Every structure is written in structure tokens, then in C-alpha cells.
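Blinded run. Sample ID left blank on purpose so nobody reads anything into the name before looking at the predicted structure. Input follows.
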Amino acid sequence: MPAIMLVHILAGAIGLLSGYVTLYAAKGATLHRKGGTVFVYSMLLMSVLGMVLAVGLGKAPSVNIPAGLLTMGLIITSLNTVRPPSATARRLDIVAMMALLAVGLTMTTLGIRAVGNGKGASAFPYFMFGIVGLLAGAGDIRVLRSGPHTGGRRLARHLWRMSYALFIASLSFSVRLPRFLPTALQIPPVLALPTLAVLGTMAYWLWRLRARRPSPRAIVVPRPEAVTG
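Blinded prediction complete.
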């Protein structure tokens, strides 16, 4: 287990660094593509090893296993969004969709149960993962039924899923951050900075994508005589 823990930590560190580089790099540029590739593989490795450790060492398996499945499902479906459609990608999307829905239903149920038992504070992680799992799974159902998104919707789907996977990793890092900071810096704004940076940047890029979409009023329909004449 010590070797697995070491690889898990290294994969997480590489995933965080490459994730932040990719998030802030020019979209579509070489640095963005290469950083994204490193991010995908390191995060998948980190998630798998995290689930192994959660089972083997009993480290909060009720949270860490769903978090690992959610991270993997978001990354796989996000990556396939910007890749050419294929039978293999569709099969992976179906498996990821089922995992996301299972995480969503399980975690939301646990959250509702915790609130009902008067443990509202402990319900937050359940709802944080559960609601996102349900939303992502529902989005996957729509895509599998109607076909891949195009244009801005395609980019938005890719962006928010990768960003939320990075958010999960940064949240885990923020929990452990006090171990590496002097007491003077162990204040909520500093500890929350890694996660707030991800959420803020994701919101910015989603806003940019939405702002670039043409308004229905701006679409000019040619007159029949202009077409026929």
C-alpha cells in the first residue's frame, strides 16, 4: 500500500499542475492539448488508485469511491466530446453514463438520508457529488439519443466536465493544504484559493462561450424572392 499511496500522490500532483496549466492555456493551442493529455491520464490513474486505497485502507470509502467514479466518468465523457465519434467512444460513454447515474442516485440518497437523520453538515459532500452525477448522466442520455453536440455546446460540455474533475482534485488538495502551510496562512481564503480559482475560471470560459453564441434575433432569414431570383 505505501507504494500505491506514493503513486497516487504523484499522479494527483501531476494532475493538479497539468490541470491548471491546461485551464489557463490558450484553448486549442499545443500547450492546451499536451497539458490536457497529461491531465487525463494522471487523473484517471489517481482516481483508480484512490479507490483502491479507499477499499484497502478503509479511508472514507463512502465518499472516496464515488468521487473517483465521478471524476473518471466526467473525464472520459469530456474527452470523447472533442474526439471524432466512434463505436469504442460510444461504448465508453455508455459505461461512464451508468457510473455517473449510479453515483448520482447513491450520493443523493445518502444526502437526503443524512439530512433526515439530523446530520445536515455531513450531507454536503453527498449532494455535491450526487447532483453533479445526476446532471452529467442526464446530459449523457440526451447526447446518446440525439447525437453529439456541436459548436459552443460541444465546447461547454468539454469544459465544465474537465473543470469539475479538476475541482474535485483541488478540493482534496485544499483539505490537505494546512499540513504544508505555516499557521499564519491557515485561513479560509487561502485554503479555498485552489478550488475558487478553478470555479472562477470555469465560469469565465462558460460565459465567454455563451457570449459568442449568435442571438436568434441576429439570424437573418432571406426573402423568397432573394433566393429564387
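Unblinding after everyone has recorded impressions. Residues 2-213 form one domain.
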